[in-house]
């Protein structure tokens, strides 16, 4: 197999997987009444555990005022809580609520639901072959990531 054929196949897989996963995720976002910016904020808060308004704004590429308005809506919907920073009471820390965590989990489930449908079309040997190939890709990608961070 040529490098071009391998890369083309990999690009086709990425295109298909992104299309299906994003289609389901966007449908879930619409149904939940949240924008992609709202989900971007929720994912960022989830990853950091706790952050400030300015940090959310920087992550989303918007002003602190715009981030504050976006976060106000998430507070109103019960997705996040704003609490005082114990070291500086002027600073507000933002954390996910149980409801916010649940919405994120449901969004990820919606995004990945198509994989269950795909799995049902594969036999045991195909699943084993694909798993072995993906394990190798994951291992090599991790090696690339580690070599980039060590330089």
How would you describe what is shown here?
It is a single chain. The protein has helices spanning 3-32, 36-48, 53-60, 64-76, 98-120, 124-150; strands at 80-84, 92-96. The protein has 151 residues and is mainly alpha-helical. It has two domains: 8-120, Orthogonal Bundle (Arc Repressor Mutant, subunit A); 122-151. It has a two-stranded antiparallel sheet with strand order 1-2. Helix 1 (3-32) packs across helix 5. The longest helix is centred in the first third of the chain and has 30 residues, at 3-32. The two termini are 32 Å apart.
Supply the key terms:
2 domains, Arc Repressor Mutant, subunit A, two-stranded antiparallel sheet, 75% helix, mainly alpha, 151 residues
Offer a quick outline of the entry:
The chain is mainly alpha-helical and 151 residues long.
Fold blueprint:
Blueprint: H1 3-32, H2 36-48, H3 53-60, H4 64-76, E1 80-84, E2 92-96, H5 98-120, H6 124-150
Antiparallel strand pairs: 1-2
The shape, in one word, is elongated
| Arithmetic mean of pLDDT | 91
CATH class wording of the largest domain:
Mainly Alpha
- Rg calc: 20 Å
Q: The CATH topology of the largest domain is what?
A: Arc Repressor Mutant, subunit A
- End-to-end Cα distance, whole Å, is 32 Å
